Amino acid sequence: HLPTAELQALDAAHHMHPFTTNDELAEKGARIITRADGIYLTDSEGNEILDAMAGLWCVNIGYGRDEIAEVAARQMRELPYYNTFFMTSHVPVIALAKKISELAPGDLNHVFFAGSGSEANDTNIRMVRHYWAEKGKPNKSVIISRHNAYHGSSVGSGSLGGMSGMHAQGGLPIPDIHHIEQPHWWAEGGDMDPEEFGVQRAKELEKAILELGEDRVAAFIAEPVQGAGGVIVPPASYWPEIQRICDNYEILLIADEVICGFGRTGNWFGSETMGIRPDIMTIAKGLSSGYAPIGGSVVSDEIASVIGGSEFNHGYTYSGHPVAAAVALENLRILEEENVITQVRDVTGPYLKEQWESLVDHPLVGEAKIVGMMGSIALVPNKNSRAPFSEAGTAGFICRERCFANNLVMRHVGDRMIISPPLVITTEEIDVLISRARLALDECYAELQK
Ligand code: PLP
């Protein structure tokens, strides 16, 4: 291929990147990734970079699995495309829907496919409103979500999300979406006991339902463990209280499992780890380990029977795409047959937890949180206080750059550093991850002292 500088110049000239400025691209040039294998990326300069983010929280089985390439090629030759509209179906989508129904908890036995998590959450908005209308309660249209949540970038899913920066662009949120506070004890709990704080934040849902009117609230959506908001692990008291409130007021509970699903938290779904009984789960990312774009809404018997009672005027050209479905199925086979999730729960997850939590002894780290294979550390100016840096995000940005310089991909959300490595990471590779993270923290600390 062309030399890196030429690729970067072409990229900056013609390729519009998500969440990136033109100046950044022109000044620094994008890092061009050319290959990947296992947990390592190779860039156009030949650097081998440990990907502690599994791409965007998605490459659960790791890179470079030939079996997936074989399945995709076979499916492309046999049936590269057909739709699932108007009474047609095909073998890969049938097999995948059956498999997901077997894996999903409770009576979540039905899947409406989409091309991504954003599309699936858009489906959810329409589906829960349609559900209540069909049940004779058309006023139940409000969906409650949380500030600082991320549920996707489309108009609907971006509205469900609680990212103010996204709402500011393009006139979001759409009507009848309401946001409550997140259960982020470290940043917002003050002197309160964490469990008391968890209950208090859950009760915000009840307060919102009573204020908006019980007859108007259709659903509550949240990630079992909030990912892009900064890997925010709720106090143990939070989810039981949320579940009680949803049950009590007949509010559908949507668990956004786009990150937490398919092993990330040490069980097939984050709902199991957090003890939740959702009515709907949003899935994407780890469903195919990112090898093909696919997402979906997994719904209960009751919801499927109501939605299918009349024609649901909704669907995507790529709903249940045969190649993506075949790839996802093969990915699930690998996760299952290679005991990847049990390994995370029993061996590598506990090992990573021990190593990750040891980072709190670093002068720059205030707290370290981790569930399964999603973790965060908070960078703070003073270890003896939870007070943030005065200029939020600077330390996080420097740390991310130092990680890159040490051939490690970690993400920063403000001043929280995030990891979400491929689930197949070994204990030896975890040692490499931690030692590179420590080096980056040391360099970041030194730079902040200047
Ligand atoms: N929901 C959650 C929790 C996510 O983290 C994301 C993406 O990061 C989405 C939904 C959107 O998924 P996609 O980017 O596939 O549209």
Automatic annotation (TrEMBL):
Domain of life according to the entry:
Bacteria
- Membrane-crossing ranges are none
Which key words tag this protein in UniProt?
Aminotransferase, Pyridoxal phosphate, Transferase
As cofactor, the record names: pyridoxal 5'-phosphate
Q: Which portions of this protein are annotated as coiled-coil regions?
A: none
Gene Ontology molecular function, alphabetical: transaminase activity
Concerning Gene3D superfamilies, the annotation shows: Aspartate Aminotransferase, domain 1 (3.90.1150.10), Type I PLP-dependent aspartate aminotransferase-like (Major domain) (3.40.640.10)
Under NCBIfam families, the record lists: PRK06105.1, PRK07480.1
Query: Which family does the entry's similarity section mention?
Result: Belongs to the class-III pyridoxal-phosphate-dependent aminotransferase family.
Protein name stated in the entry: Aspartate aminotransferase family protein
